[in-house]
Every structure is written in C-alpha cells, then in structure tokens.
Amino acid sequence: MEKILQVKELQVSFSTYGGEVKAVRGVSFDLHKGETLAIVGESGCGKSVTSQSIMRLIPNPPGKIISGEILFKGEDLIQLNESELRKIRGANISMIFQDPMTALNPTLSIGEQIMEGIIQHKKLSRAEAKKAAVEMLTLVGIPSPELRLKQYPHQFSGGMRQRIVIAMALVCQPDVLIADEPTTALDVTIQAQILELFREIQMKTGVSIILITHDLGVVAQVADRIAVMYAGRIVELGSRREIFYRPQHPYTKGLLQSVPRLDMERDELVPIPGTPPDLFSPPVGCAFTARCPYAMEVCDRAYPFRTQLSNHHYVDCWLQDERAQVLVSTFV
Ligand code: SF4
Ligand code: MG
C-alpha cells in the first residue's frame, strides 16, 4: 500500500513553569493512500499535539519538536521553513477542528472564504474559483450552492457550518486531511451525517484522513485502522476489527469497556480507575502500570518491546512478550 505520510519517532515537548512536559514520546506510524487512520486516547495523551506537529502548528515557544521525521511524499516536513510550509498547508495537507465557528470568519461570505484558499494556492481566476467552490459545496451536501455562496456563517446551522469547513479544507484537493475531534461539538444525528460525509468524500476523492478523537463510537463508524495513544505513545495499532474484537493492550481493553457503544448496556460500562501519569517526569517503564490490573514487576522497570501480532497489528505490552519473565529474574 502506498504510504502518503510517515511519522517516525516523533518527540514533542512543551516548556512550562513546572518544567518540561514530554507530550509526545516517540510516535511512529504510516498513513496509507485513501485510508482513514484514527488516533484515539484520553485528553492529554498527545493525539492533538501529534497532528499539529504534522502541520507544524506547534507554537514554539513553548512547544518544540525535539526529534523525529515527518515524511510527506518523501520530504521531511520538520526541515521545511515557514514559506515552504505555507505552500503545503491547505494545498497538500489540510486540517479541520472541533468548532466550525472558530475556523470561519463571521464577516466574510462563505463563498469568499472557500475561494480564498484556491485563489492563493492554485492561482485560479475568480470565475474558476467560484466554479470550484460551487462544486465543493455540492460535494459536501449544501443545497442551492450558488445562492448560499453569498451568505455568511451565521446564516447556517452548526452541522452546515462544519460541512462548509470541510469544503474549505478540501477545495485544493489535498492528499491528507487531518480532522481533530470534527464532530464533538455537534449533536448525535448531525455527527453521524458528518461521519458519513467523510466516507463519501473519501470514496470520491481518495483523500487520506487522520481522525483524532476520544470517541470510539466515531472510530467504529469510519476508521480503517486505529492507533491507541497513552501518555505520549502509541501503545497499540491495528485494523478496526483487530482493535475492536482482538484488543491486546490492557489500556485498549479498558477504553473499550469505558465508553458507551451500541452493542452494550449502560450498566456494562466500567471506567478505567486512576489517571494518566504526569508527563513532567514520565515513568521509565510502561506508563499504564499504576492503572493496569495485570501489571508485573518488569512493567515498572522497563518499557515493553513492541510485539507484532499480525501484518498491521502491534502492541507495546509485557504480557505479550515471553522475555518479561527472563528479565524479571535479572532484577535484584
Ligand atoms: Fe499492564 Fe505491564 Fe502491559 Fe503495561 S506492560 S499494560 S503495566 S501488563
Ligand atoms: Mg485535543
């Protein structure tokens, strides 16, 4: 499968008064052409920081990409300067956020806003840009697009505004779309419609999507593969089937039991006890040790090796590794 984006050993830190927060601690993954990869985890696990690093949107200071590579079509985005990045942002890699209102300018018509990106990146005439904007609004399911181009954001409902934001993100036909909690601000019915729209758009355009979310319901609906993040690391990655039906990391299992799903009764929900470790001084071993019902001595002492379970499925957990017992015997 063609790899459109490769993140390798990414480390990102933030300086604060309390010290350095190691928000992302060696994250690696590939994004394949035309797939949706979901990155899931609790708030503060580093999933948004990872996606903002890809767009090089980490405010520096206080944030800093410490090391790693982000290869987009073979080019390392970490090495690019601001003007090179501006050419890529929006044109090749686009991003949409949780709250559509913050992405839209209330004083400009939505036509102006959709056309702005394409005029800037593709050097089209206004007439051509307008045609592209109409096509985009049609693609995202806005009725009477010619008329609605002249309207302002406040004249649209929340769900419609998110469709407009998606149109803006897609107008330059990017290869990669990063969506950070794109449906969190919407009610459940609209949320389902927007997720369905992602699928349609992907089928029609072949865009690769990174979907950042804490919501496994969202993931179940659209993800091809799922990366589970905990305390700044990907602890398990697999196909949607593998993560939902054969989860191996105790944290993944905990997540699946702690969020409501359609096939589950409310009283079956079991929250994961405890809280994630603080990332000022992250543990040397597995960061889930304090909350894990299966924790062993080795877990505290050393970070687990990665175990490959299938082509696409891997996990970082000592339970999967026979060497755990051998290592324990070397501790005094
Ligand atoms: Fe639990 Fe140990 Fe596996 Fe971490 S490495 S998830 S503490 S069993
Ligand atoms: Mg976030």
Automatic annotation (TrEMBL):
Family annotation (Gene3D superfamilies): P-loop containing nucleotide triphosphate hydrolases
Principal location listed in the UniProt entry: membrane
Q: Which GO terms describe its molecular function?
A: ATP binding; ATP hydrolysis activity
BP GO annotations: peptide transport
Alphabetically ordered keywords of this record: ATP-binding, Cell membrane, Membrane, Nucleotide-binding, Transport
- Similarity field: Belongs to the ABC transporter superfamily.
Which Gene Ontology terms of cellular component type are present? plasma membrane
Fetch the Pfam families from UniProt.
ABC_tran, oligo_HPY
InterPro entries registered for this protein in UniProt = AAA+_ATPase (IPR003593), ABC_Ni/Peptide_Import (IPR050388), ABC_transporter-like_ATP-bd (IPR003439), ABC_transporter-like_CS (IPR017871), Oligopep_ABC_C (IPR013563), P-loop_NTPase (IPR027417)
UniProt entry tagged with the keyword Cell membrane: yes
The protein here is known as Dipeptide ABC transporter ATP-binding protein DppD
Topology versus the membrane: Peripheral membrane protein
Which stretch is the leader sequence?
Answer: none
**Which gene is annotated as encoding this protein in its UniProt record?**
dppD
ABC transporter domain segment(s):
7-256
Cellular localisation? Cell membrane
